Amino acid sequence: MNFISQEIITKNRVSITNQLQEIGPGEVAKEIVTALQTSRKSIPSKYFYNSIGSLLFEEITRLEEYYPTRTEKNILKQIAPGLMKQYGTYEIIELGPGDHSKISILLQAATVMNMKSVRYLPLDISQQAITNSAESLVKDFSNVEIEGYAADFTSQFDLIRREQPAMICFFGSTIGNFDWEASLELLENLSRQMKKGDIFLLGMDMIKPLSVLHSAYNDSRGVTAAFNKNILNSVNDLIQSDFHTGNFDHLAFFNEKNSRIEMHLVAKSNLTVHSPCFNEDLLLMKGESIHTENSHKFNSGHIREITEATGLQLNYTHTDDRKWFSVAEFQKF
Predict the structure, then answer these.
(1) Domain limits of the chain?
(2) Beta partners for 305?
(3) Do 125 and 96 form a contact (C-beta atoms < 8 A)?
(4) How many CB atoms within 10 Å of residue 276?
């Protein structure tokens, strides 16, 4: 995550622009320090995705216990031919894509239909993730042109250069990482910046049995625990702190009242953490936690609320046989 200098990489049908310097390291440090110094300590979940965190999350998506990715992919495989037939002339914008496995499903459908050119615009806070995906995509798909942005899509969506109507993809139930009020605010902001005719595909993880949810975020191999702890390494890089991952336990549980999985890091003992960005050392007591992520689980009522809040038209709700995951298809009018 380069918040210091602008970079523009151009190579073989790929252009990647780093826009994170518009935010700057000072604002990043302020955001992290403020979250850590509240009575309920937290770290914004977007900072999971340094180079190691991105790789760990890709590993999570391949775990047997982690159902969301494969379930969403199966839905996309079913709907991709129809989407590309109807919206094949649209640019594809993807928010927080991580790896390229989901967008590849849409691009494969475009290839089968002999589409001559597809313009793909990914926005991700990890420039390395975009670079790795772009290198693979241009090898696999001769008809794709990529204009990527290392950017925070929650505040920098307006920086992308658009040329055509767009199919905006927000997969992975990433919307579930936000508090409900914040998610509605984000979606309202995106809706205001959409153009008439734009399509918005929103992946949403639905409410399901507690045992399934627990296993998905407490996998037997401990990959999710490693992913959770690695956010401390990311924070160390960003604010020059001295968190040690071995001083914390991974905790993930379902908060029924708020309909969300919560992930925390729990201090094993009394700790003191130093950083030049702190006015005074950060103190944690044994058993105190740092809240690192939410993963909200949705129902049909939430989809109706999104429709009402954003003013977007809900065309379809695509789901699997068990109704474990949904891809809601909205349109701007």
Answers:
(1) 24-59+213-296, 72-209+299-331
(2) none
(3) yes
(4) 8
According to DSSP, residue 298 is labeled B
Distances in whole angstroms, Cα of residue 189 to Cα of each of 109, 180, 192, 236, 291? 30, 14, 5, 31, 26
Hey, what are 169's tokens?
């993809």
Longest Cα separation, the chain: 61
pLDDT of 1 > 60? The answer is no
List pLDDT tens digits, range 170-208: 999 999 999 999 999 999 999 999 999 999 999 999 999
Tell me which CATH homologous superfamily contains domain 72-209+299-331.
Answer: Vaccinia Virus protein VP39 (3.40.50.150)
Q: Cα(220)–Cα(314) distance, rounded to whole angstroms? A: 38
Q: Which helix (H) or strand (E) holds 136?
A: helix 127-140
Amino acid in position 39: S
Asked whether the beta carbons of 282 and 302 are under 8 A apart, the reply is: no
